[in-house]
Specification:
Blueprint lengths: L29 E10 L6 E3 L3 H9 L6 H15 L6 H11 L5 E5 L5 E3 L3 E7 L7 H4 L1 H4 L3 H24 L10 E3 L8 H11 L9 H11 L13 H5 L6 H11 L5 E4 L5 H12 L1 H5 L6 E4 L5 H16 L2 E2 L5 E2 L4 E5 L8 H10 L7 E5 L1 H4 L9 E10 L2 E4 L18 E5 L2 E5 L12 E5 L2 E2 L5 H8 L2 H12 L1
Parallel strand pairs: 6-12, 7-8, 8-11, 11-12
Antiparallel strand pairs: 1-5, 1-13, 2-4, 3-5, 3-17, 9-10, 13-14, 15-16, 17-18
Helix pairs in contact: 2-3, 6-7, 6-14, 7-8, 11-13, 13-14
């Protein structure tokens, strides 16, 4: 059986089973259903809103309903339920009345905006009174914005930790965009997740080995090359030379890549000997004479805070060190270190603090992160939820909400919502009490059309950490 071409999947099947029956469950003469999405709390106090545009472009824009898809969905759902609960009439109406375009309006905070949790991030409502059931049919798909949003948030909070240490121990912040490198492709659950998650990381940084992320940024966010990398060794390209051939393997890296930056994993056997006797001994002259870049030593095992400092100490004995203007030590510019094992929001601060304790500048080190960056997250990391807050039933407006006695943390918002700025802080106004002129939510999708098309450059600017924005202001006022 032939598989469908990419992009031709049946949108009618991209929902939870029970939602197929919901058109029969709303009150009689319901004409409007209005729902919203928020982070109800979670690990990080604010979230970087990102990824809705990917979903809209990938799934919802243009003619997404046709006869074949309706028939396919009808047949599948009848077999799935053992009954005919499918809203064939409703989907045929969308095809005939709207040309297969979805009569929905989606308003959202601009992508890249950093919003404290417990605030509305986007709203969805039907634009045709006969299609009230459509709003929550796509909850399943739209809630998947939790993933790019949470990766971007996790990445940004790590950027804040790195930036703080860099600001305290380095004379320059120039290396910051490349100090957390994405190693997460192989640890992702699929190529698509790697593309979405990796692109989310690129909101904050520019270093990646996840090619899928670059392609996602190119296709959905107008960025030709969103991330960069360098030639680097893996264990197989070193250990195939044998233990006695490790020096030859290292030498081969320097000779095959004579200019620019090159990274070499160095813990295959004895990381201490590799740093002292090989890089700082037999190959010292080649390292010192490197043109237009540096050799990056990669330890990949052991206790990271201790290993990184010991590697720096050994390399400094072989290559020397000098203090920068902040009073912290820096290796010569032709040699650096990358720690790519065990890196997460919880661990990188300990590594940087131990470096600081031993008077080493953060400028000596970069990080690589994999599973913890793209995969060790879920929808509850930021407690993401999509809830109905307003409806029109029998001509009467209803402020809809839930307030479970067993968990008031799941209490939902009421009525039509606006997201407004008060004294520089975001506030969600409920029950239609807000001022539409002050609403930070903008219409991004309406009746099958994308109305806002954000570029990655625009998003990066909005998501920038305050430390860098403050520095930019200071420089512009000098």
């Amino acid at each position: 059986m032939a598989l469908p071409a990419a992009g031709t999947e049946n949108l009618l099947l991209v929902t939870d089973s029970y939602k197929v029956t919901h058109h029969l469950q709303y009150p009689p003469n319901t004409t409007t259903v209005y729902s919203y999405f928020e982070s109800r709390g979670g690990k990080f106090p604010s979230t970087v809103f990102f990824g809705l545009q990917y979903i809209l472009k990938r799934w919802l824009c243009g003619k997404v309903v046709d006869r074949e898809k309706i028939q396919e969905a009808k047949n599948l759902y009848e077999a799935h339920f053992g009954h005919d609960h499918f809203n064939e009439e409703g989907w045929n109406y969308i095809l005939e009345k709207h040309g297969g375009h979805l009569p929905l309006r989606i308003k959202a905070v601009p992508e890249g905006t950093v919003v404290p949790y417990k605030n509305v991030l986007f709203t969805v409502e039907n634009t045709d009174p006969k299609c009230h059931w459509l709003t929550n049919y796509f909850e399943t798909l739209l809630v998947q914005v939790w993933y790019p949003m949470t990766v971007a948030t996790n990445s940004r909070y790590q950027k804040e930790i790195i930036a703080k240490n860099l600001d305290e121990t380095s004379d320059t912040m120039d290396k910051l965009p490349f100090m957390l490198h994405d190693f997460g492709f192989r640890g992702s659950s699929s190529v698509e997740s790697a593309g979405i998650g990796g692109c989310s990381h690129l909101v904050n940084f520019k270093g990646t080995d996840t090619i899928a992320a670059i392609m996602t940024a190119r296709k959905y966010y107008g960025c030709a090359i969103a991330g960069f990398s360098i030639p680097a060794a893996e264990h197989s390209t070193i250990t195939t030379w044998g233990k006695k051939g490790e020096t030859a393997a290292f030498r081969n890296m320097l000779e095959k890549f004579p200019r620019g930056m090159v990274a070499c994993v160095s813990d295959s056997y004895n990381i201490w000997d590799a740093c002292e006797k090989v890089w700082g001994g037999e190959l010292r002259e080649l390292v010192c004479n490197r043109k237009d870049g540096c050799v990056v030593i990669r330890p990949d095992s052991g206790d990271p805070p201790k290993v990184v400092v010991k590697v720096l100490e050994i390399l400094s004995k072989q290559f020397g060190k000098e203090k920068n203007k902040k009073g912290y030590y820096l290796l010569p510019p032709y040699i650096r270190v990358i720690q790519g094992d065990g890196i997460s929001y919880e661990t990188l601060g300990d590594i940087l603090e131990n470096m600081k304790k031993h008077e080493w500048s953060a400028d000596n080190l970069a990080f690589g992160s994999g599973g913890a960056l793209l995969q060790r997250l879920d929808r509850d990391t930021q407690k993401c939820a999509y809830k109905c807050s307003y409806a029109v039933c029998n001509g009467a407006e209803v402020n809809v909400y839930k307030e479970p006695i067993t968990d008031l943390g799941k209490k939902s918002k009421k009525g039509r919502l606006t997201l407004e700025l008060e004294d520089g802080s975001f506030v969600t106004k409920e029950e239609g009490t807000g001022d539409p002129k002050k609403d930070q939510l903008v219409t991004v999708f309406e009746n099958g059309k994308l109305l806002q098309d954000y570029t990655l450059d625009e998003i990066r600017r909005k998501a920038e950490i305050q430390l860098l924005l403050d520095r930019e202001i200071q420089q512009n006022t000098v």
